[in-house]
Amino acid sequence: MSFQAYLDTIEDKTGHTPRELLAVAEAKGITAGSKAGDVVTWLADDYGLGRGHSMALWHVIKNGPQISSKHVGTTGAHRDASDTLWLDGKATRPTPA
């Protein structure tokens, strides 16, 4: 599953866009300096999300929307269309050119 697919599934399961969840994390005191386990616990307790989805959001909390370009343009299971993740929800994501 690609990073973007993880974020899209998080949105489906929580009803919140990744950007909205970043604001919730900040309000809870979860920042780039927090531990990944804090994110895993929060998302499991509040939304029933598993470790894989939690780690995808943890990556965004820690590193922002940029991801490694090593899977961009590949045909593997972890391929992403871009090295920049869309955080504002599936409905507003631009269609790739």
From TrEMBL:
It comes from the Bacteria. Residues 69-97 are annotated as: Disordered. InterPro entries: DUF4287. This is DUF4287 domain-containing protein. It comes from Occultella aeris.
